[in-house]
Amino acid sequence: MLRRNFMKQSGLASAATFLPVTGFTMKNKPKFKMGLQLFTIRDAMKADPLGSLKKAKAMGYEDLEIYGFDPEQIGYYGYEAKEFKMILDDLNLTTTSGHYDFSSYFDKPDDELKRYLNSCIQGAHILNKPYITWPWLAPEFRTIENFKILSEKLNWMSEYVNAAGLKFAYHNHDFEFTDHNGQTGYDILLKETNPQLVKLQMDMYWVMHSSNKTPQQLITDNPGRFVMWHIKDMDKVSRDYTELGNGSIDYKEMLSGIDTDALEYYYIEQGSNFAKNSMKSIADSAKFFKKNLQQYL
Fold it and tell me: What pTM was computed for the model?
């Protein structure tokens, strides 16, 4: 698709008219860009990626964490990486991390994983995206012994990614905090991965949901490691996801006192359980975040 065609098709040239008023002056401008994990709006991105990005920009989102990499095309959301980068540039959006399908290679030879990783590195360089993130471990692999194997993989992968001029991180869910006779997978990962190379992306919802430590405690106990956060709320009854401000996590108390020294990027996320739909969800969460929480970040 030629640049002029998608500019015309999506109306990107007039995107400035959608820029939000956030209520911040230059004097109290936030330190970090307001980020969005695009998995939140995966249905909208599948149906209309250009229109969805434009709407997210209008809501105040400036930075993205992406998913859904195509290693054969070296592309994202149906576009080759170079084309997708032009779209982001025209909207003045950045992408700083990506979730990749490493779990599918967990039980395959390291050579196969390395070939896939090389494709991820190629795509990340094209997008000027600093972080490659391992986001998930399939249920059949979640044993203590496999967390030790995972730690070994994360160590060599992070060294390989760093040598390519990028950075590498691991993202948690709930299963890392499951007790295995006094040990958890997260205990193994924290102990056996290289803290200088394997950085951590904290999903604050899952820490509050399943860990016996708070996000503040984990950050204090592991200085320099938690370089990215996922921020999402917890339904007061079901404990499922919910829009920011609707749930039980007191982010105002948490963020007002948390150590942000290691933080580089954060992303608002909600994987499901939308009050209406995914686009309304990110709009509601953005509105609450800008009014109540962005002052701390």
Answer: 0.91
